[in-house]
Design goal:
The complex is a heterotrimer of chains A (409), B (320) and C (297). By secondary structure, chain A is an alpha/beta fold. In chain A, 45% of the residues lie in helices and 19% in strands. Chain A has a domain of 163 residues: Rossmann fold (3-Layer(aba) Sandwich). In chain A, helix 12 packs across helix 13. The longest helix of chain A is centred in the first third of the chain and has 21 residues. The N terminus of chain A is likely disordered. Chain B is globular, with a radius of gyration of 19 Å. Chain B has a two-stranded antiparallel ribbon. Chain B has one domain. In chain B, helix 4 runs antiparallel to helix 5, helix 8 packs across helix 9 and helix 12 packs parallel to helix 15. By secondary structure, chain C is mostly helical. Chain C has a domain of 200 residues. Chain C has a two-stranded antiparallel sheet with strand order 1-2. In chain C, a hairpin with a 2-residue loop joins strand 1 and strand 2. Chain C starts with 8 loop residues before the first helix and ends in a 10-residue tail after the last helix. The chains are: A alpha/beta (409), B mainly alpha (320), C mainly alpha (297).
């Protein structure tokens, strides 16, 4: 009996020792680097997007560091994989803040994870820059002083899509999408705004499938039977490529106009290659070939040289985040969280898509949207966006009055 | 009753450990306190599962559902109503136990694999409802920033609260296991036919055990919300159910405190390993295989030298 | 807003075909799961991962040859690759556990699922993959006023082939009969001088091979991603549970229920189509908790 007690005690001691070793104290102050923590999903399908965010961020940070860094200090970042799970996102966020002692937090593509971490950052009073989650609650209903969004949200997508769709002759619409929060928010955003601009439009039916539904053929055949003028697809990453694929295979894309957010974006079109359907209407925040400004070309070239692939939309978000952080630190004069936030509000930066302002009220970056149609071209092995129409940021931003109402103010 | 506690194994050690843990917050880094809190919550969850698996021999394949129900109950009550906090604290485990009663009622009609598969089916349905009913449960977004009363506002006070509830729950679980109820449960695990022959209503007893186990799972769910202030559908997902299973196996499912050790190791490893590699699932799989082959009694079981009875081995072979 | 007043018999038939083809893929996969469940009495959690490997392998093989030949080659090789992987796992590790209690076997398949899941990520990376249907099966056939995608008709055909092949195997071949016997009473089979371990190996490999075949077949219709294993395994478990554990015809029944309720549900109530398969599962389990057809044991 005594022997077992000692062994048990030893085992416990070993565990505690390992734990203490794990929690090594951070580096010393003074010329210590500024630490940024990135929590994102590096497992599963979202990595197609998140790698770009991380890589573009690194590209920008390297540029800053070669020029001597910011305030005489280098900017360092470390990543944590949340595997698209909310509990891991929370644990990793806490680890980065309490153990790794980062100054700024960034991430994640999982809207639920972002909302959870955002609440944590509110309590901890640490700035959190959101890089890919599209829920409008992030800067809307659940927004607060410590969270910023460098990506578009479902309200902005809705307004952009509605603006573009209202100019087309369609009247009878069908809505189809992934049956989860993002899908419904997207659909509500697009439809609500479209109906406001063009009251004559009519919703003749809806289809909702489970997220990641592998076979969309039954849904598409049912929709084509109803003969709508156009279909609005409210799909997340998982079903997007699927929808396009099935649309091409069943000939649906030829017969009925389809609108899908990010259909024109490289992340969606690259995997499909030359098999992607043409004439799909889509909205996107970024194309590496448009606008063909020197800044955008330089950015795309630098990214391609560094990583051997064309930048997708995530790269814009990562690059923008780095630009915002560097400029805000420069302006603040020191790494002070509150000051950082103060100068970030209303800050304007010159980005690959033009000037982008961080709106002071809700901490939402004012990003322009691009609506286009997919088209096959001989120069690339994937389809590109053509007939691109720019919808300026001011036209798509969520209304401040609506946000106030949602927050109960 | 107190005699039972005093005659428990290693009481001195346990009390000393409890006091040390109670004194930790001012002495160690905040992150360590958070990790310990997470370990406490997960330990209670694993212990509740082990009541029916290790000691009851039932194939409880979707235990996470009851954990999630407990968590969502308190989250919903605290965010959607203005009822006082203690209503949520009590409603969580009760609702979890009610769901446990409902699902259990269907499952105990079957045995072993059928029991498990049916539970996975019914549990998945509940997960699907929580996931899709976004107007009520927040759907896949979950519910975040659940407000907690003032006395729980800091990490340290949450830590004390969780630790005390954990200690109380563990004492209760220990008493239950050592009681005639617990002995009958283990007898049913070892030889259900013989128990029937002696006049024990096996189904009713198993159902009672399920209700108890799911009640404690509900408590664990409530404690999770105290610690993290968030709920999300992952809490009811089948992968979590299997992970809790692994914790019981890892710690030693025929020992009393084995699951605690299993939970502690799993939680610590998950975060520790997650810092350095993206391939935590791969490593977990390898650990599991090593366990199955070399340490089937779990870490604690290895130390305690607990072995199954020969009768159990014979009874099990060939029965699905 | 869900009722679709404009569909007629042509649309109904079209949806039915689509539902059947979906059911056939599910059947191919679930037949394998059922077979393993029947003979080894273990629900193979790694089944979804093997299905995923089948899909990814199809992607790789189809790229190796230009044009459609690549796909046909892949259809042949991908299941074999999966069969090989399962054979290695079985001979090296799994078979040592046959004498152990069942929970250990179950947990082993879970460990295997975890490992294979990450292995796919290591080998193929995280990008979405896409496989094109072969030229022969592209497009649709117009019949009875509606158009039927060729590939879906192909799937129905293949599904029937697999069902017939399995029936012949289990009832007419020696190995099949031994498998059935081992499912019911493994000790007796052992006493008859047959190496039970090899029977289990065969059953496991065949079951996993079917999972790989399912993945290969589904590849042209979906985007091939990580996480395919998780979505599939829950459906497969539900189907096998409502069909009757270990019963391959139960797997067929369950797959049909799943596939058809979903596609018809889409036609009648597209907003709530996802509920239909789950509702069907609940109804079946309430009426017959052990599944529709008798379990093999």
């Amino acid at each position: 009996m005594k022997r077992i007690v000692t062994m048990k005690g030893l085992a416990l001691l070993a565990v505690l020792l390992a734990a203490f070793l794990f929690f090594h104290p951070s580096g010393v102050k003074a010329q210590a680097p500024i630490k940024v923590g990135i929590i994102d999903t590096y497992t599963g399908p979202p990595t197609a997007y998140t790698y770009d965010v991380r890589d573009a961020f690194k590209l920008a940070i390297d540029e800053v560091n070669t020029k001597g860094g910011v305030l005489g200090r280098k900017i360092e970042f470390t990543t944590r994989d949340d595997k698209f799970k909310v509990d891991l996102a929370l644990s990793m966020a806490k680890e980065l803040v309490m153990n790794e002692k980062v100054d700024i937090l960034m991430g994640t593509i999982n809207s639920a994870g972002t909302l959870a971490v955002s609440e944590f950052c509110k309590v901890e009073k640490i700035p959190f820059l959101v890089t890919f989650s599209k829920s409008d609650k992030i800067t809307g209903e659940k927004g607060h002083r410590y969270v910023f969004s460098i990506t578009e949200n479902t309200v902005m997508i809705g307004k952009a899509a509605a603006a573009g769709l209202s100019k087309r002759p369609f009247l009878k619409y069908w809505i189809a999408g992934d049956d989860y929060e993002y899908g419904h928010a997207l659909a509500d955003g697009v439809w609500g705004n479209l109906k406001k601009i063009k009251p004559k439009v009519e919703l003749i039916g809806q289809s909702w499938w489970k997220v990641g539904e592998p076979d969309l053929t039954p849904y598409l055949t049912a929709i084509s039977a109803a003969k709508p003028d156009a279909v609005i697809f409210a799909t997340g990453a998982a079903s997007m490529v699927n929808a396009m694929k099935v649309a091409k295979a069943t000939g649906f894309a030829e017969k009925i106009p389809m609108f899908i957010h990010t259909a024109t974006e490289l992340a969606t079109l690259a995997p499909l290659g030359p098999e992607a359907p043409e004439k799909i209407i889509g909205t996107s925040n970024y194309h590496f070939y448009y606008p063909a400004t020197p800044k955008n070309k330089a950015f795309a070239k630098a990214f391609r040289d560094a990583y051997g692939r064309y930048p997708k939309v995530g790269a814009l978000y990562g690059y923008l985040t780095a630009q915002f952080i560097a400029k805000a630190l420069e302006k603040a004069g020191k790494m002070d969280r509150e000051k950082f936030i103060d100068v970030l509000e209303g800050m304007k930066i010159d980005s690959p898509v033009g000037e982008v302002e961080m709106r002071a009220y809700d901490h939402q970056a004012m990003l322009p949207m691009f609506m286009a149609v997919t088209k096959k071209v001989p120069t690339y092995s994937f389809l590109i966006a053509s007939d691109i129409v720019t919808i300026p940021a001011k036209e798509v931003m969520p209304g401040i009055e609506e946000i106030k109402k949602a927050r109960g103010q | 009753m107190f005699r039972r506690i005093i005659h428990a194994k290693w009481p001195g050690f346990t009390i000393a450990l409890f006091i040390i843990l109670l004194l930790l917050p001012p002495l160690v880094p905040r992150f360590f306190i958070y990790i310990l809190g997470l370990i406490y919550v997960t330990s209670l969850l694993a212990m509740s599962l082990n009541l029916v698996v290790g000691h009851g021999g039932m194939f409880q394949f979707h235990h996470a559902v009851f954990y999630g129900v407990g968590a969502y109950t308190i989250a919903l009550l605290l965010t959607k109503t203005s009822w006082p906090m203690w209503v949520g604290f009590i409603a969580g485990p009760i609702l979890a136990a009610l769901v446990g009663l409902l699902i259990g009622w269907f499952c105990v009609r079957l045995t072993r694999l059928y029991f498990g598969m049916l539970q996975i089916s019914l549990g998945s349905l509940i997960w699907a409802i929580v996931f899709r009913w976004y107007k009520f449960t927040g759907g896949d977004d979950g519910i975040h920033g659940v407000p907690m009363p003032g006395f729980l506002s800091s990490l340290n006070s949450s830590y004390y609260f969780i630790l005390i509830i954990l200690a109380g729950s563990l004492i209760l679980l220990y008493l239950i296991l050592k009681s005639p109820f617990g002995s009958t449960l283990q007898a049913i695990r070892d030889n259900p036919q013989r128990c029937e022959a002696v006049g024990i209503n096996v189904r009713r007893h198993q159902l009672r055990a399920i209700v108890v186990a799911t009640f404690f799972a509900g408590i664990a769910g409530v404690l999770f919300v105290v610690l993290e202030r968030s709920v999300f559908p992952d809490l009811l997902f089948w992968v979590l159910s299997l992970e809790i299973f692994i914790m019981c196996l890892l710690g030693g499912w025929f020992t009393f405190a084995g699951p605690i050790l299993g939970a502690a190791i799993t939680v610590a490893l998950r975060i520790f390993v997650g810092k350095y590699t993206e391939y935590w699932t791969l490593i977990l799989g390898i650990i599991l295989i090593l366990l199955i082959f070399f340490l089937p009694e779990g870490v604690m079981g290895y130390f305690e030298g607990a072995f199954k009875t020969r009768t159990k081995k014979v009874a099990e072979r060939g029965n699905p | 807003m869900g009722f679709l007043p404009t569909f007629g018999p042509a649309e109904l038939l079209s949806q039915l075909i689509v539902g059947l083809s979906r059911a056939m893929i599910l059947f191919v996969v679930c037949a394998g799961l059922s077979f393993v469940l029947g003979v080894l009495r273990v629900p193979n959690i790694a089944h979804g991962s093997l299905y995923m490997i089948g899909a990814f392998a199809t992607y790789s093989f189809s790229k190796s040859l230009t044009g459609s030949a690549g796909f046909w080659l892949a259809l042949l090789l991908a299941p074999l690759v999966v069969a090989f992987i399962s054979l290695v796992a079985e001979r090296a590790l799994f078979r040592h556990l046959y004498q152990r209690e069942h929970l250990m076997l179950l947990l082993f398949t879970f460990a295997l699922a975890l490992i294979l899941g990450d292995l796919v990520k290591i080998v193929w990376g995280a990008e979405y993959r896409s496989v094109a249907a072969p030229d022969l099966l592209k497009g649709s056939i117009s019949m009875l006023g509606s158009s039927f995608p060729r590939y879906n008709l192909f799937l129905i055909f293949i599904g029937l082939l697999v069902a017939i092949a399995l029936w012949l195997f289990v009832n007419k071949t020696k190995m099949g009969k031994i498998s059935r016997a081992a499912a019911v009473d493994r000790d007796m089979v052992g006493l008859l001088g047959i190496n039970v371990s090899w029977v289990f190996a065969g059953a496991f490999v065949i079951g996993c091979c079917l999972a790989g075949l399912g993945g290969a077949l589904v590849a042209p219709t979906v985007s091939i991603t990580l996480g395919m294993d998780h979505t599939l395994i829950i459906e497969a478990f539900l189907i096998v549970t409502i069909g009757g554990l270990g019963n391959m015809w139960g797997a067929l029944a369950g797959s049909l229920i799943f596939g058809v309720t979903q596609s018809l549900g889409v036609l009648f109530f597209p907003q709530f189509a996802i509920v239909f398969p789950y509702a069907a599962v609940v109804i079946v389990l309430l009426l017959r908790p052990k599944g529709l057809l008798k379990s093999v044991w």
